[in-house]
Amino acid sequence: MNRRSFLVGAGGVIVALPALEAWAPKVASAASPGRGKFAIILRQANGVAQFGQDSRDSGEKYFPDAVGPLTAASIPSDRALSEIGKYANKLLVVRGVNFKFGPNGCGHTGGGNQCLTAAQPSHDPKGNKSLAMGESIDNRIARELTPGVEPLTLYAGRKEGYINEVLSYRGPKMIRAAEGNPINAYKRLFNMPNTQGGADPKEALARKSVNDAVRSQLKTLQSRSDLSAADKQRLDLHFSSIRDLEVAMSCKMPSTELANLEKVSAEFMNGDRLVDIAKLQLDIAALAASCGMMKVATLQIGDGNDNTVYTVNGVRYPSYHFVSHRVESAGDTGPAIPGAVEMHHQIDRIHLRMFAHLLDKLSSYPSGSGTLLDQGVAMLTNDLAHGPAHDYNNVPYVLAGSAGGFLKQGQYVDAGGVNNNKILNTIGAALGCKNAAGGPLDDFGDPSLEKGLITKMLA
Amino acid sequence: MLELRRSLIWRRLSLHAIALLALSASACTLAEGAFGAKRERVGKNGRSDTGGDSNSNVGTGASGTGASGGTNGSGNGGDVVAPVDALTDSTRFPRLTHTQWENSVRDLLKLSAVPGLSSAFTTDPPGSTFGNNGELLQVTPGLSGDYARAASTLAKKVAGDPASLARLFPRKGAGTSDDRTRNLLRDFGLRAYRRPLEDAEVDSLLALWKNGTALTDTTDAFAAGAEVVIQVALQSPYFVYRTEFGSPGADGVLYLSNYELASRLSYSLWNTMPDDSLMEAARNGVLVKAEGLLETATRMLDDARAEPLLREFHAKLFHLDRVDGLKKSVTSFPEWSDDLPGLVRKESELFVSDVVGAQNGGLKQLLTANYTFVNAKLAKLYGVTAQGDTFTKTQLDPSQRAGILTRLAFLASYSQETVHDPIHRGVFVNLQIICSALPDAPPNIPPLPPNIPGETMRERVTRHTGPGTCGAGCHGTYINPAGFAFENFDAIGRHRTMEAGKPVNAKDSLHFDDGDFSYDGPVAFSKVLAERPQVHRCYAGNLLEFTFGRPGGANDRALIERAGQASLRGDSTKKVILTLVTAPSFVARPAPKGTSI
To answer: Is the CB of A214 less than 8 angstroms away from the CB of B135?
Structure first.
């Protein structure tokens, strides 16, 4: 049982009363995230169909034509990003970001190693087994901002064993397992012993009555005129903590969604259901963010060299990995796949529609004068840049949400060929991470990399 | 007018009580004063971290002229012009520590044992020497959830067990009239909130009680009402905080109320909520009177409930938790076994408890007594004889052992697996015993150089950190001389006279604030420590931090000095604590800013 599940347990989901000796809940000590800034990061594999020097690439099919303000109209309809055109005023599309380090025998693992870590791929192990030599940004965010609360690490698709999880690292060579079954992720996150029960309505009512009584007492104390600033802050924290707890305890999927979650999850290993599984995972991440139960989540779509077979307009494509190589193989040689670039483009669109699903979901939760999307940041990225080259230059970063006004909105910017540690610094800083001197995080990743944020991204 | 009278009564009685405390002192009579606080951190030895004048915050009393600090005064218990303590402000809402929460829940709900739920609570932030700094303890979102779940669990448990429920809310006669329920709630509320409830508060709880069956699955209305009320009580800010507002006297100073003092005393000395007798004393207005406070605190310290807290204080002060699970090289020390850490810790706890409890001793005895408690296994390490597993009080060789710093716990835990560690032994003595203001260690400290065959550890450490090296400033002057005093003890604490084929050299000299003192060996060094004012001030400062639940501030200097002097004179630990908890800064807070007197 983890910290998040304990919060919900307090609402009475766990109704059985163990014996006195077993009263102590087995939970990890942790700080509660609370509802605040958050990040949800999606990772696509195999690069995107964007303009490149390689003859196997074609014209630009991903990014808009020019940097500058973004509107739905400024994103041509033949670009994959047009899939999220309706969110143009909340987007921050970044080009000009590279991975610094070359792979150690496998472009996929080398990219996956660096994607969220900006760390070097290991020499031992190497090849498709190489690992990152540093922690990932989701780990850093959780470790620093909500110590004891694990980042939410999700997965959609099959794991074929060649390269499985690539994203989340606790530290050098310490990769974190990702949960591929949405119902398991949901149960673990919300501590549901089963999905049919839910909180006892009476107990929920009692909780509200008790909280009202405690809040009334706190208000009496808060109204005193002789409190120091520190004591005011102390009582305010206590007061808001009760509110946060109520929000967390009210967290559950509507019963219809929950039924669908159970049904679809039964096929979580079926590659043909990848999109459905990914959407459910994103629903869970958005729900957790809305309840303030986590600070950061990642969703890895497909394994290291994603071999998912997509069907578009009734046409069953070859393995996505083969499509990215433009040939019927996992390498550079083999029979050409006719229309591979367009296929890759369509697969990019599928990923962007998954991203759009997340943005829809986040936008459905009101928050302050806006929505949950304004409060956090969602990002779709890749562990390669271009499909056929499997390279690390101009890795796509598509962000939405300003993280509470920290990030620019409605802009397409060119970072100018910086290393990806700077974009990870920017995201970490947006959520509140600090460097050793107490300033905004600017030194994440391999120590050899130039420090700093991408100032063009800052609001 | 009432406030003026209260203030004056306190002052007069306080003088008398403090004079009683000081009967054994030669010339240390103290009076209470009340002055604006200046928040400034002060070293535990009572010396300002900022190097300011130790009298700078001692000012003029409300009723006349204050003295200039120090310990002058006639000690006649009457209307003397005496030195005064400036007061220190701190939070009005010190939150219960998790241990205090456990103890309070046990006592409030009349359980036979602590519930044990707090082991899973959100961990409190670091930064508190004794884990009880009220400034750092807050109700975070995580802890709010912890409290909620625990309250729900406990309320169900109690309400669902007729015997437990009857202990807490006795059903007398038939009927559950509102008046009867009100009385039950007043009794329970008095204990839960540690003060009498206002009528409106009783009404609020009564409304919840009467709605119990709608809010719980319990069909019995009485039990359902109790279940809801227990849930509220356990999450109430009046339960989880020790609210300390005080009320202003004529001088503007905020004097804690009888009930606030009952709580403060109880948590400071028993680590739990006040018992019935304390509440009765509060109800009778005993605690705001100096004699009453002194007599009550004396009784409490002599009660068995004070023993765990005294044990906890010394365990934390002497870092006894370092012993837990201590490993040693089986090659170098085949005598060491997995059960020894537990035995070694128990030995130290028995020793400390005996000194400060049964013997009613103090720091001098802790630093010099040459007895301990051993079983057969420990006796071998001490070179004495004992039979079986039972711990028996045993005299140690007075030429080898004197006090807690010559016991296995310190010596073995401040050693490495194969060799002893004079550097960290020295750091411990400087920080925990002397309260030296050692600066933080610089980054990237190189390890000790490899051992040269035939070289003693002292020679090796000196080669690395002694005169002529970059570490000479701290190590050569403060750390090494303290650590080298224990060269007679190996990495598991056995006494020896030879190391690496050479006679052990445990001779050195250390600077204290009253001069340089030389010694040859651990016994002599412990005796030097036991006679140093700086050491006793350090002990007093730690006791203040522990009993007050906050670090000493600049305004506590005079009190720390006074308590340190008492300890130096030979006062027992309990008596030093009495000096602290009957001091003005324990019972009052400075006048709020802007208050004109």
So the answer is: no
